[in-house]
Amino acid sequence: MDVAEAGVIPAAHAPSPAPVRGGGLLHVALVGNPNTGKSTLFNALTGMRQRVGNYSGVTVERVEGRYRDADGHPVAVLDLPGTYSLSASSPDEEIALAVLLGRAQGVARPDVVVVVADAQNLERNLFLASQVLELGLPTVIALNQVDAALAAGTRVDPIELTLELGVPVVATVATKGEGIDLLKRAIGKAVGLAPAERRFELPPEAARALAPLEACLARGGLNPGAAAMEALRLLAVNQIGPHLAHVEGLQAAVDEARAAVEAAGIPPRSLEAEARYGWIAGVVERAATHTPTGKKTLTDRIDAVALHRVWGPLVFVALMALVFQSIFTWAAPLMDTVEGVFGALGAAVGSVLPEGDLQSLLVDGVIGGVGSVLVFLPQIAILFLFIGILEDSGYMARAAFIMDRMMRSVGLHGRSFIPLLSGYACAVPGVMSTRTIEAPKDRLATIMVLPLMSCSARIPIYTLLIGAFIPPVAVAGIFDLRGVTLLAMYLLGTLTALAMAAVFKKTLLKGRPRPMIMELPPYRLPSVKSLALSVGHRASLFLRKAGTIILSLTIVLWALATYPKSTAAPGTPPEAAQEQQLAHSLLGRMGHAIEPAVRPLGYDWKIGVGIVSSFAAREVFVATMGTIYGVGSADETSADLRDRLRAQRHERTGLPVYTPLVAVGLMVFYVYAMMCMSTLAVVVRETGGGRKGLAWAGFQFAYMLALAYGAAFLVYRGGLALGFQ
Amino acid sequence: MLQTLIAGLVVLAALAYVGRRVWRTVLAGRTPKDGPGCGDDCGCGH
Prior knowledge:
Chain A is α/β, with parallel strands linked by helices.
């Protein structure tokens, strides 16, 4: 359906001023509510392949892209965080407001603002638009998702809206690329327009009461429109924000204005909402018509089950179980292929190069170490394929809704769920996305527990140990014990994160939870292209990581496992000589020094070395195992690390090193242990940086390590006591 | 001997890379306003 068919008139036909601009770079800021298709519109404008999700709050970081307009002039587009208002009551809103006021560090004030408004939720979207209109910037409204609005019985007239708002309104369907050329033209022309302005009037008593506050803000460098907007905002939220920290006497002016408004019998907190929504109601009445279709949509029918009090959580758990099971069943043939390739590569390099240090470095270190990590690429790709399907279909927002009840029961804000969910991919963006949480204590509690969510770096460890030691036994007729074990590791991390959050919220970070308002987007069929891009992006990141930090650490570990060299006595069997060499090496000596600490968990010194080496990044554990058992193995051409683990025996007793109990204990250790340099760095920064940040990150590292050690000890010792092996 | 020399050079290069990464990570943690806190290859997608 094109825009015209959707029942709206393209804004190109609406009156628009002549273009006035030179050939310089035009700065455009994209602002809008979450779930308006803002990220999709950004992609459509710039062609930049940014990840698109459809649950609230996906855009947290600053994202920029460029395009050239019809005249060939460059245009830089800044995608601001999705926000419902410019109240500056969360870090995201604060950033958006600071950019629009030209007060964000290192960001130029935009020449044009594009407000992306969802045609289906015009009233709510116009609240943000009405605030932006007052900032004194040329503004264009992109009226998006007009096709979906029409399907739901809502018809919006962009010409009427243009007249009501006093700025160009362009109807778009970003997912289909409709209206994008018109929008680009409108952006080019808007730069020559007179700045937009407030379209409603306040009660005279309120206007008089606010005048001194507006004057104070104007003295701080704000234009009259922005000062009026800020005055109204400060009355509602009373949160000055860093972007206004330079304005002298501001707090006193706010207090005076508040007292004057109250004295006039007007509630100061609700003045802005009443004034804006009162005006918006009239605008919507004139520009939009709604004809109820009376039909239950597919989304309504699916949600009747997916959001049901009983069926909803069951559907959620069943879906997750299916995802984890398919990670094993689908990935097996691909993994065998990758293993075969690395086995053949090792054999080929071993036969071409004469025996020596370089041959050992390439075969045992590089191919054995990095190869043993790369084998897990298919499983990571499958996991992200499913996460992409769940996100793009709209189910993830339902999962957040289902989890909200649980989040509130442990004292966390509902908004904490999305950062925690991001933690399944990687804790780094998860920690950064906690910026959407307004209350500092809720935010800190979320950051403190977030690395307990099993990230993708743990997949190689889980799947290596599960594949080697958990038998493929059927569970409940349809599930596989391996998939169930993997699900159990994810659930263990998630439930512990919630339990720890409850502990923090009752002790260190006491505070009342706030209710969450979230939007459930309609279900959509995921786009194959978007899924392919998402999986490809993840796979390339994993490959890059394997080719850089994991490769480098593997080479260093190989050197530690190879030097200094020992001379075996004549007649020593090759395997014994290699074991002797390993024990004599620097790595062996370090391992033996660590061994007393890890022996209570059932581990030998080699596992201890694996744990220590994985402090930088968790996958390095697998690479270390690949290197150690490559150096210590007589069968150097075999790339199947699982077989090697199964074959390991204790030097003295001859009993297997790895038993199912040791494997489960080791997995539990990795569920809890904070072993990621990047996450620690981002926690330091996001908890305030400097000593304060270091203290929080240090505390987090210590409590998670204690939890990991304690839990692994309990699993191993408890399991032995119960007769498990 | 040549194999040992080449392997030694490779190991030194790897050590330098790991050191650089660790230093960059420490710097990212120390300066709250600059840098995303993770490298291109940290796996986080940012």
